[in-house]
Amino acid sequence: MASPSPSADKTIHFIRHGESTFNQWRLRSILTFSWIFVKDPMIIDARLSAQGKLQLAHEFGSAGIDTTSLADYWWLSYPTAATMTIPQSAEEVAPLRESVADLDARILAFLHLLRALPQTNIAVVGHSSFIKRLTKATRKLSNCEIHTTTLHQCLK
């Protein structure tokens, strides 16, 4: 993921989302062994679970973070096959799955988007697998965990 160094480095705070309804299903399916029968419950655009909302309130409720300028579904401004289609079955999801090369290209495009922003202190909320790959971490983040690094470090 090599790229020219940004002129002024930026601090990036990667935050894993709170527990989602998919995370809740996955934990329950592991505890009950139902994962043997259902590999993917097809929870499209999983929302935070009740526990996830509590985690969010506990970790960030008093942080005073202003999110009023964030656009809903901002990622749809950069459409891909995966964001233009709403799959209704496992068969419709399969062709949308990313290869490692596709994921790395998406990560690099995202880093360039961050570099183009005027802000020098940026919070990114996302999925643990994406954050792990992007930051080259050795483990996934826990729910609502923060990993702080620099854009320059991510572009290495």
UniProtKB/TrEMBL annotation:
Domain of life of the organism encoding this protein:
Eukaryota
Gene Ontology terms: cellular component: cytoplasm
Q: Name one GO molecular function term.
A: phosphatase activity
Q: Which InterPro entries match?
A: His_PPase_superfam, PGM_Phosphatase
Q: What is this protein called?
A: Histidine phosphatase family protein
